[in-house]
What we know:
Blueprint: H1 2-21, E1 25-28, E2 38-42, E3 53-56, E4 59-63, E5 67-71, E6 74-82, E7 85-93, E8 105-111, E9 121-128, E10 135-138, E11 146-150, E12 153-160, E13 166-173, E14 185-190, E15 200-206, E16 215-224, E17 233-241, E18 246-253, E19 260-269, E20 279-288, H2 294-297, E21 303-307, E22 321-326, E23 331-335
Parallel strand pairs: 14-20, 15-19
Antiparallel strand pairs: 1-2, 2-5, 3-4, 3-6, 6-7, 8-9, 9-11, 10-12, 12-13, 16-17, 17-18, 19-20, 21-22, 22-23
Amino acid sequence: MKNLKLLLLTLISVLTFNLFSQTQVYTTNTSQPNLCDGTAALDTTNMNITSIVWQGMGAIISQGNYYVLNLCPGTYSVTFLSNGTPVTLTFTIQAGTFNPCASFSAGFLYDNSTDSTSCDGIALVIPNAGTAPYTYSWSNGATTQTISNLCPGSYCCYVTDANGCNYTACDTVGVQTVSPNYGDTLVINNPGNCNNPTTTLTSVIEDCALDYNAVDSSYITNITYPSNLLDSMVCVWVVTDTNGVNSTYTTVYTGVMLTGCYNLQLIVYCLQKSMDYKTIIVNQNEYISFAGINELLGNSKQLVSVVDLIGREVKPEPNKFLIYTYSDGSKEIKYINE
Length: 338
């Protein structure tokens, strides 16, 4: 009989241990050594919630919850009743690794252009919570902290600090309030097929027959590339309005000195318009090469990588939007329909 009682007590102890051992505390460590953003949570509801008590640093920090937040690095415990039996589990919150990039950002300041046809705007980026020295890479190809002689339009700056942390700051340079055409300029920025253009090539056209208030989109339909350095380049632009009317403009750009990425800009205006929009500014980045001599210069583009829209490297495949990166640094988004 004594042996039978001992066996029963042993079985009860094993069953009790197995029941309690199924209850665990899941934790997340702090994101940085000096932050208190750790968490802990019980993995079961097979208990009386009112009996749950979380303790740490010699004090009760929470009661009656399956989880606890805002924990600093250290050792903690949780006590609860399971089937009427008190159970105490101990756990540790570890200090996370310091991330020097966690708070890095940059502010964007600018002065608008005098009017819609002037290119005298200024933009400046100011790094915040980073480590000097900084490098700057603007969407117009500039590499200084301040850029000037800007036409109305959107600009972005990719800022990198000494730790390799990076931040992209973007904003739009508009028209000064003292300008007679302030508030009547529509700016359209198309993505084009490359990033970080080396310069902006601008063509200005006056058209008072265009319905400026109905303009919906504008884009380049054809480019005739130059055959040699300093040759002119011909572009055909289409401006489409909400009534389905297309206006076509053939423009000539000069000053293409090297193969590379350029921001092609079209400005269409009418000074006689008395209300609402009377100026359209369109920007589109294009990779420009010289017809017939690209191979000679050794500037032919080669595909370097293909990634999806969240940055994962993939193989080219149909029926998906994918980002193609080339050896010249240019990028384009393609959708192959099959």
